[in-house]
């Protein structure tokens, strides 16, 4: 249970008083004061989080991004990308799309892993931005379990679409890639696509009945894992504006890719500067 964010919450006052505190010192202090041992990884990451907490315990979302998002399409693409520095971690992001179909970074935060707690922390701060705007936003994401649990807790009832291409890849993996298996795979994917893109419930029903017959038990097991409201146009509770996938989040991941080898604070500063240049150009 002694994860990085717990460590951070316990040492934030120490970091405020002594910013140069070393991870080894943190390990010794936890051993002496609490009688427990923590890893060097959690000591280091907890220290980095605490340094951010000293300046405000929240994901980075700058005022210009918040103000501008009020005039963007009400869609948000949520994703995480792994960091490549010595101590790893995950960069969580929420990006939208502006009127010129360009990607629009709204918020990002750094955590040690994609847990329910970390996604809840990120989404709660995101909710503090979105709720005062007074409009419902549709979310797109993959099916990371931590994110799904947090989304249901923070944004209950808000429309949430699973990435169609992510679902399609999962379904493809259940069939052989050669011979008759490849023909069956192509047929199943075609029918699943008809289900996802169907604009009426009747059209969806016809395609789904054929899909279950052709795909048999593998398809039945696959579609039983999630509700049709999360992938089928005919049942989606919000507005998609023609979007079916979470590919825009990949644009953000590529956009910040040059910083993923850096420690946490230079990473965030690098993204901040790129945001300034992007908004200035626009």
Spell out the key features of this protein.
5-stranded mixed beta sheet, Nucleotidyltransferase, domain 5, 11% strand, 3 domains
The order of strands across the largest sheet is 3-2-1-4-5
**CATH architectural name of the largest domain:** 2-Layer Sandwich
Stretches with pLDDT under 50, minimum 5 residues: none
Structural class: alpha/beta
What is the CATH level 1 assignment of the largest domain?
Alpha Beta
* Main sheet properties: 5 strands, mixed
Q: What is the number of helical segments per DSSP (H or I, 4+ residues)?
A: 11
Per the CATH scheme, the topology name of the largest domain is Nucleotidyltransferase, domain 5
Shape: globular
Query: What's the rounded overall pLDDT mean?
Result: 86
What is the tally of beta strands? 5
Proportion of residues in extended strands: 5-15%
